[in-house]
Design brief:
There is one protein chain. The protein is α+β, with helices and mostly antiparallel strands and about 60 residues long. It has one domain: Alpha-Beta Plaits (2-Layer Sandwich). The protein has two helices and four strands. Strands 1-4 form a two-stranded antiparallel ribbon. A two-stranded antiparallel ribbon has the order 2-3. A hairpin with a 2-residue loop joins strand 2 and strand 3. Keywords: 4Fe-4S, Electron transport, Iron, Iron-sulfur, Metal-binding, Repeat, Transport.
């Protein structure tokens, strides 16, 4: 299964992915989103759809 990856250089720290993820894969760390539970990812794409700057990819 693919795992979510946050491009920290692109992330604006809005928290949209944290709110959108149904399985709590993300947390805010300072002013950036961080993947904290990648194995929980179900590849639903909610985080990708929620991110306004396309900072999240599944890899």
């Amino acid at each position: 299964m693919a795992k979510p990856v946050v491009d920290e250089a692109t992330c604006v720290g809005c928290g949209a992915c944290v709110d959108a993820c149904p399985v709590d894969v993300f947390e805010m760390s300072g002013d950036k989103a961080k993947v904290v539970n990648p194995d929980a990812c179900v590849e639903c794409g909610a985080c990708i759809d929620a991110c306004p700057v396309d900072a999240i990819k599944l890899a």
